[in-house]
Amino acid sequence: MAYKHKVSHEWERAATLRELRAGRLAQDDVCDADFLLRAAATHHGVDSKRACPICGSVLRNTRWVYGEVLGRRAGSARSEKEIAEFVAEGLEFTVHTVEVCRSCRWNHLLTSEVAFRKC
């Protein structure tokens, strides 16, 4: 399994934090992870090396899969093992990595990339 077409959203993350710290965004605007996102982070996410930029708690990186080829599985959080199983089926689809704070509800898209079978 491999990834291609990786897009980093770190610049947008930094810009959002600058806007928050400058008072142009409210904390409620950026700390808005809903129940489903926080539950996915708990059950499918892995601890990040970074602390939450808002409250300092442990962030969880959660992988979400998208693509018509996935059928009903599209738009769901999945482990790296499950993603590898889908790729082993010959599927090619988009994977988003989202960081989530289960304490203050901060969340931000970190990367999007395409998972595929490497021959």
Describe this structure in words.
This is DUF5318 domain-containing protein. It comes from Corynebacterium stationis. Pfam families: DUF5318 (PF17249). InterPro entries: DUF5318. It contains four helices and six strands, in the order βαααβββαββ. Strands 1, 2, 3, 4, 5 and 6 form a six-stranded antiparallel β-sheet that branches. The longest helix is centred in the first third of the chain and has 12 residues. The protein has 119 residues and is α+β, with helices and mostly antiparallel strands. It has one domain. A hairpin with a 5-residue loop joins strand 5 and strand 6. It is elongated and about 50 Å long.
Give keywords:
single chain, 119 residues, alpha+beta, six-stranded antiparallel sheet, 4 helices, 6 strands, 36% strand, elongated
Question: Which stretches are poorly predicted, pLDDT < 50 over at least 5 residues?
Answer: none
Percent range of helical residues: 25-40%
Shape: elongated
Order of helices and strands: EHHHEEEHEE
Q: What's the total helix number?
A: 4
How many domains, in number, for the residues? 1
Integer-rounded radius of gyration: 15 Å
pLDDT averaged over residues: 96
User: How would you sum up the major sheet?
Assistant: 6 strands, antiparallel
Distance between the termini: 9 Å
Number of strands: 6
Measured by DSSP, the beta-strand proportion falls in 35-45%
Going by helix content, strand content and strand pairing, the class is alpha+beta
